[in-house]
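stage 2 :: seqdesign
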């Protein structure tokens, strides 16, 4: 139960710290090795498989809809064919093994087994108790998975739930703002906090031509200037999107309460910082490019 007033942005800050560690596995060599052992060798197929596996053997349409900012043609190149190579259950087990190995490598055995990790898992799982399934397909699918026994894997599972819960709500905010998948990426990159165009092209399937066309549409709406920077209206729209996402994602953090959110944020930042220091992410991943 909430015992103190919750700052409107504290949930966002907590999520960002949680997601920073969660997302490391997408760049971990252990993930490619585990999926490669199942016969899934394309990095794009690995990405689609591990995140969508909780949904079952879905097709390209469902993956494109729930992931939102990937080009359909890229998704269709790998889905549903990937399920003929590895069933969703096999993928989920391989993902867990990869997360276990990568967290042990990035954080070290002492951190993985420390009391603070168990505390963080307990707090994050408590927050996730207040997440809602309605209209949140990726969250709902992952919420049906069992909670791992080991604290570091339970913590990672909880970060997955909280990340996908916020992400599903974020898509609703993007749709309400009339931004398609690529336009959402372009405006996020323009904030300086999103992926560089190089990584967008390499992982999302979009081309420079696609990027330029989206940029043109955003300029016509007055959201980008001639240099591709956000205008005042563009900055206001991005902030409104984040605010709307905060509102849609407030339940788990209100349930945890201000002291719990503050403690979880501190723990999450420490774990994420250690992973970042260990080289968890490519140096050129984030920025305007």
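stage 2 :: out
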């Amino acid at each position: 139960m909430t015992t103190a007033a919750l700052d409107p942005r504290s949930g966002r800050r907590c999520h960002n710290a949680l997601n920073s560690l969660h997302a490391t596995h997408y760049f971990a060599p252990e993930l490619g090795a585990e999926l490669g052992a199942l016969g899934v060798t394309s990095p794009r197929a690995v990405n689609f498989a591990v995140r969508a596996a909780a949904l079952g053997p879905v097709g390209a349409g469902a993956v494109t809809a729930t992931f939102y900012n990937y080009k359909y043609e890229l998704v269709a190149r790998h889905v549903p064919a990937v399920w003929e190579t590895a069933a969703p259950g096999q993928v989920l087990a391989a993902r867990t093994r990869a997360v276990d190995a990568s967290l042990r490598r990035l954080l070290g055995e002492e951190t993985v087994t420390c009391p603070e990790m168990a505390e963080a898992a307990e707090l994050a799982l408590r927050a996730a108790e207040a997440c809602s399934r309605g209209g949140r397909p990726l969250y709902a699918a992952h919420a049906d998975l069992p909670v791992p026994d080991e604290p570091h894997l339970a913590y990672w599972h909880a970060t997955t739930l909280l990340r996908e819960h916020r992400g599903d709500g974020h898509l609703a905010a993007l749709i309400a703002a009339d931004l398609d998948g690529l336009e959402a990426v372009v405006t996020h990159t323009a904030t300086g906090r999103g992926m560089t165009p190089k990584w967008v092209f390499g992982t999302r399937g979009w081309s420079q031509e696609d990027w330029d066309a989206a940029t043109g549409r955003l300029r016509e709406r007055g959201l980008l200037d001639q240099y591709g920077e956000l205008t005042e209206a563009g900055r206001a729209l991005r902030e409104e999107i984040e605010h709307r996402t905060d509102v849609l994602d407030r339940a788990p953090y209100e349930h945890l309460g201000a002291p719990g959110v503050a403690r979880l944020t501190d723990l999450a930042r420490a774990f994420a910082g250690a992973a970042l220091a260990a080289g968890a992410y490519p140096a050129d991943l984030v920025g305007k490019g």
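stage 3 :: structure notes
- The two ends are 44 Å apart (CA to CA).
- The CA atoms of residues 104 and 110 lie 9 Å apart.
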